[in-house]
Amino acid sequence: MSNVVVLDNGGGLLKAGQGGERNPAVVIPNCLYRPLTSKKFLHPTTTLSSTTEDLTSAAIRRPIDRGYLINPDLQRDIWSHLFTSLLHVTPSSSSLLLTEALFSLPSIQRSTDELVFEDFGFNSLYVADSPSLVHLYEASRRPYGLVSEAQCSLVVDCGFSFTHAAPVFQNFTVNYGVKRIDLGGKALTNYLKELVSYRSVNVMDETFIMDDVKEKLCFVSVDVERDLQVARKRGNDNLFRCTYVLPDGVTHTKGYVKDPEAAQRHRILTDGATPSRAVETKKETDHLEVMEKSEERKRVDLTKNEFDLTNERFLVPEMIFQPADLGNVCHQG
Q1: Do 310 and 231 meet the contact criterion of CB atoms below 8 Å apart?
Q2: Would you list the DSSP string of 204-251?
Q3: Which of 4, 35, 265, 288 could form a disulfide with 239 if both were Cys (CB 3.0 to 4.6 A apart)?
Q4: Domain holding 315: CATH number?
Q5: Would 136 be classed as within a structural domain?
Q6: Which of 74, 331, 57 is nearest to 203 (CA)?
Q7: 114 lies in some domain
Q8: What is the DSSP annotation of 13-80?
């Protein structure tokens, strides 16, 4: 087993594993959470979308805000749980490869160094930014590809708080050419919460639930004007309408998509079919990997505990391409 620990310390998720492994061994939220049924904050042991606990209106504490470490004590607590209980590594006999946000302040860098060496006692530390690692990975995966031959690339990193467009040359990020917008997954979730709260039911306090809605139902449109016209249709001609059922704390503690097959109908448009052929080409979607509907869910009447999504499914991700609609502007590093 490698003695190198790889840690992608994101604002939303922690991805960690051993050096040499293709995929991370552990993916957990970078936070502590407190359900309404608990009096203390808990450590996530899995992704919160797969936990069995009721996370309705759960309180959240995050060590990273707007991409930067603001609470080293909380980060120490989360890392201790990660290294000891999940990765089962000994920091004193290991080295650490750590990702860090671009343009991190010197004071934040010193706090990170103190965590790594003084609190955990790692042998060595290498800090890298995400764009350079992405370029290196792609170049090594395809040694005769265009990226490897040209030794340069443009990496777009959509994170929890920021979106960076970073040019990379010979595995080094060209800092003066980096462009940044203060828009990431957190802002998109908040925008989705506002839309659903205005049109259906108040979900402003349901961060975990709306994260799950965004990940399961939202997609990037290839033709926004066309999809807006389709979203106005009724009945089977509306390929985007789907229902999300909120947890009730009794029969189920997690939200779910009521009809997973209906949530995949929008792919018919991507394949080149017209909306009028939606019913005829329904069989074409059978090969898609979708969740199977539970017979129990069909019988339960939860009409007061669910909401429909239509154009929200593609308008929320569209904000990445139209950040001015949310009041965001581009910044140069």
Answers
A1: yes
A2: TT-HHHHHHHHHHH----S-HHHHHHHHT--GGG-SS-EEEEPP-SSS
A3: 265
A4: 3.90.640.10
A5: no
A6: 57
A7: yes
A8: EEEEEETT-SS-SEEEESSEEE-TT-SS-B--SS-GGG--S--TT-EEE-SEETTEE--HHHHHHHHH
**Where do we find the tokens 């502007």?**
329
Q: Residues 6 or more apart from 321 whose CB is under 8 A from it?
A: none
Q: What is the mean pLDDT of residues 140-162?
A: 88
Reading the block at residue 188, the tokens are 């998109």
Secondary structure percentages of the chain, helix, strand, coil, to 5: 40, 20, 40
- What are the tens digits of pLDDT across the range 63-120? 998 878 899 999 999 999 999 999 999 999 999 999 988 888 898 899 999 999 999 9
Residue (of 245, 258, 256, 240) closest to 311 by Cα position: 240
Residue 172 belongs to a domain = no
Q: In terms of domains, do 189 and 252 share one? A: yes
Q: Look at residue 311 and tell me if it is in a domain.
A: yes
Same domain, 42 and 120: yes
The whole domain housing 108 covers 4-130
pLDDT 10s digits, 219-257: 998 888 998 998 888 777 788 888 998 888 777 778 888
The torsion angles phi and psi of 330, rounded to 5 degrees, stand at: -85, 140
Give the global pTM.
0.80
Q: Give pLDDT, residue 284.
A: 39
Report the distance separating Cα 141 and Cα 139, nearest Å: 6
The number of distinct structural domains making up the chain is: 2
Of the listed ranges 50-64, 71-85, 303-317, the least confidently predicted one is 50-64
